Structure prediction request, 776 residues.
Amino acid sequence: MKRIFIDAHKCDGCMSCSIACMNAHREDGGDSVYTLDLTDPKNQSRNFIKKNPTGGYIPLFCRHCDDPDCANACMSGALKKDLATGLVKYEKEKCAGCYMCVMNCRYGIPQPDTSLHYMVKCDFCEGKDGPSCVKACPKEAIYVKEV
Amino acid sequence: MSECTNCFSSRTCPSADKPLEAFIRSLPMETSHHRTEGQSTKCGFGLQGVCCRLCANGPCRITPKAPRGICGADADTIVARNFLRAVACGSGCYIHIVENTAKNLKNTALAKGKIRSEESLYRLAKELGIDGEDVYDLAVKVADEVLADLYKPDDVQMELIEKLAYSPRLEAWKKLGIMPGGSKSEVFSGVVKCSTNLNSDPMDMLVHCLKLGISTGVYGLMLTNLLNDILLGEPEIRFAPVGLNVIDPDYINIMITGHQHSMFTYIQDRLLEEDVVAKAKAAGAKGFKLVGCTCVGQDLQLRGAHYTEIFDGHAGNNYTSEAILATGAIDGVLSEFNCTLPGIEPICDELMIKQICIDDVAKKKNAELIPFNFDTRKEDGDRIIDELIEAYKNRRGKVKMNLLPEHGNKNTLTGVSELSLKKFLGDSWKPLIDLIVSGKIKGVAGVVGCSSVAYGHDTLTVALTKELIAKDIIVLSAGCSSGGIENCGLMTPEAAELAGPGLKEVCKTLGIPPVLNFGPCLAIGRLEMVATELAKEIGVDIPQLPLVLSAAQWLEEQALADGCFGLALGLPLHLGVPPFITGSQLVTKVLTEDMKDLTGGQVIVDADAKSAAEKLEAIILEKRSALNI
Ligand code: SF4
Ligand code: SF4
Ligand code: SF4
Ligand code: SF4
Ligand code: SF4
Prediction:
């Protein structure tokens, strides 16, 4: 099973990971980063880079936790830990939009989507060849490791 | 274990020129082609032009959650500001070139020096309505009028433009209010506009870009060629060798880089004088040779008929310069402008190649600066020559040769200009127009501008050129694109085989290649003169011609200034990658769509050769049917 690991001290806050994440999940069919609409709130990143008040940056990425706060809090069964892949998966159809996951994740990863009916969270770039954020990071501040 | 810091990526970017690609990959030193891999992660904000570093609050970057910079600038303002900055810098570069060229013409005339083409002088003077007592007086007056225009304030319109530009275009520009004031002042007000918390109006800034485009095109491009013709001699059509095969290790070889050919005239002649050749011989060489690289090499190649003895040929474009040096057979680099890549410095150090720079605007870190000064050109020239001989003596024997004698070809057609082409056609544009009307030649594409490597060296340029000629669209080239296209053999008569049936027949009948090389990027000005002449002959305006431009692998800010000229002329302009504008829907829409209603021009962005060629062909067909042909 694979997870994204973080070397926060290497991160320089460039947000290439966030752009890559937005681009990987855009719905207009485009794939070139040149045409990603950076003014459209629908393009939401599933990872976040926060400034560390004591210096440097804190990259926030979904841990796909073994004991996931989000899935534990999810009453409708939309969020579930997939034991085969180790990923915490989201099924939009089952989501009630209650945002218990948003309130419970200790890393602040799940976000309401712009319609305020669903949530968005890291899907480990399912269906693509590996996490797009990791490929885009010029600093190797995030990397994929077998666990 | 300590980290290895000396090694470099053994992966290089692909090149359209396969022998060159293999050569570069095998080199024991790093080049730009190697560095593309380490720089392959591009910043998305930078690519879209929505990063602003204009003040200490920045860098600010536009995201869906942060649609404005701290000062309040939105994506449109940030993109337009960044774009105007680039265009103003690019324009400044070309205006520097024409300014120096005019000064050199004036100084040469005052010193009663060599005017290689009096015919060109009289022709230009007549066109500009200038009289003089003799050839020198006339040259001084022409140069003075050019300089006077360049130095006008930005609220005073330049004068020569009225005589040089095509009248329907002048009318259109006046109607749009984009006639430029003094070229230098327009650059100045351009950079002022895009400084911190000044202009925030994207439309105003884009209009300024068009003004800069016009002053760049008419002065920086067209006039530089015409002034150089006077000083250096007119281009004559002939066949010449190109590629790394031009390098002859028996000579003291000087690689020249830059854009200001008139700065080399003195030294170029001096290198052939008996006492200098004797010095070279005493050092063990057969004499001196200039090896062409970048645009100044293209310019020398273009006028090569006058310089057969000193000029060995054009070896390659900007991103071939490192490979040229890596052959070991170059003893010195004489540079005066871009594109003199910083990447040549470590190679020059390692191979003991002397770097001398003759214009401080392009001062290289390791180069000795001997600024070109007309009054002291003789002493300076001799000093340069002595230093080069010294370098030759120091390095030969110690540095291993790594030649590539089979690279390139020996029969590239060169020397094409608005004059030589017309002469070739029998002193008339009619034969070309007839071929276009008959459809044997569907249209004309100018494949111009630079060469870049981030997405492959000349790969798109060469692939697009092949697509276009296969569609019976004749290609005219100018700039570093020429260097790549010629080294790949597309400017040899044999390349006719790659053309579509109509163009192939034309090429075979005339013994010409399907791509005609106009030389340096400055010669984009010549292409525009061809366009003007064709339009005049047919009696239409430039945007009506079945003519398209592509700066497929544009690299520099200068290319963006050229591009703005293309747009002002009303021409469709293809680019392989967008010029950092896509972060603004407004700027993107104005440049790619709305411009059609303003000047007739339009930017087309497409990184794929096949689909780009299809789009350009569709435009050509549309223009043909509007002309009822
Ligand atoms: S969203 Fe939060 S709680 Fe859920 S798996 Fe990711 S990190 Fe863990
Ligand atoms: S793995 Fe994919 S979905 Fe998850 S943060 Fe990275 S880019 Fe976004
Ligand atoms: S791409 Fe890497 S360095 Fe840049 S912000 Fe993300 S984690 Fe940090
Ligand atoms: S473009 Fe801006 S955001 Fe991107 S790397 Fe450069 S300074 Fe940083
Ligand atoms: S000028 Fe405005 S957008 Fe630019 S860096 Fe300063 S605050 Fe940010």
User: Anything to note?
Assistant: The longest helix of chain A spans residues 16-24. The two ends of chain A are 5 Å apart (CA to CA).
